[in-house]
Amino acid sequence: MKTTFSMRTLAAIAALIIASSALAAATGTTPGVAGELVAGPTGAASADTSSTTSTIATRTGWGSTTWVQAAVLLGSGFNAGIGFRPWERFSLSINLDILEDQGSATASAIMYIPGDVPILTSAYVGAGATWELDSRAVHPSLTAGAELRLLFAEYEWVMAPDSYGKIRSGLRIRF
Asked: Residue 112 belongs to what H/E stretch?
């Protein structure tokens, strides 16, 4: 059992790294210094960020467009996830939770709370659907979380017939 769990974990991490690299290449974003403008697929970045233009430009730093995360589930498990942030206050994420006896995959839409949150980099809430891998059933879920630079912690409540919650905490790396 332990060998299978380790192999699944390594396979999930490798798949997320490959998928995040492909997503970053497809969206035309490149890593940069926080606050620096990075050109989109057109190859031109606008120096005037207050005007709306057809040029695709994005700020890097905490508002990056793609991230990969690795976390532990409080209790007994491991999480790997990937996310995409098309707008400053909205993101989409996919999480794979691997437990010793079961697992689940969650797709969520997340909205970041506007304004400054004391001490934290950001706070967010979201909703999504969780697919239970062992029972092959899909259930709605709610998520609430917070980020502090590269660290994050979140709570996901799955509204299954036997409702339950998961606490994830770990590292989130942005591209």
From this structure: strand 103-112
How far is it, in rounded angstroms, from Cα 61 to Cα 81?
A: 19
Inter-residue long-range contacts of 77-86, CB under 8 Å, 24+ positions, other chains counted: 77/166, 78/9, 78/12, 79/168, 79/170, 80/9, 80/12, 80/13, 80/16, 81/16, 82/16, 82/19, 82/20, 82/23, 83/110, 84/23, 84/27
pLDDT per residue as tens digits for the range 75-111: 779 999 999 988 889 999 999 999 877 899 999 999 9
Instruction: Say if CB 134 and CB 118 are below 8 A apart.
Output: no
For residue 93, count CB atoms less than 10 angstroms from its CB and return exposed for 0-12, middle for 13-18, buried for 19 or more. Answer: buried
Q: How far apart are CA 96 and CA 70, in angstroms?
A: 10
pLDDT digits (tens, 9 = 90+) for 113-165: 988 888 888 999 999 999 998 888 999 999 999 999 899 999 999 998 888 89
Question: pTM of the entire structure?
Answer: 0.63
Residue 80 to residues 12, 48, 104, 115, 153, Cα–Cα distance (Å)? 7, 37, 11, 28, 13
Distance CA(80)–CA(162), nearest Å, equals: 24
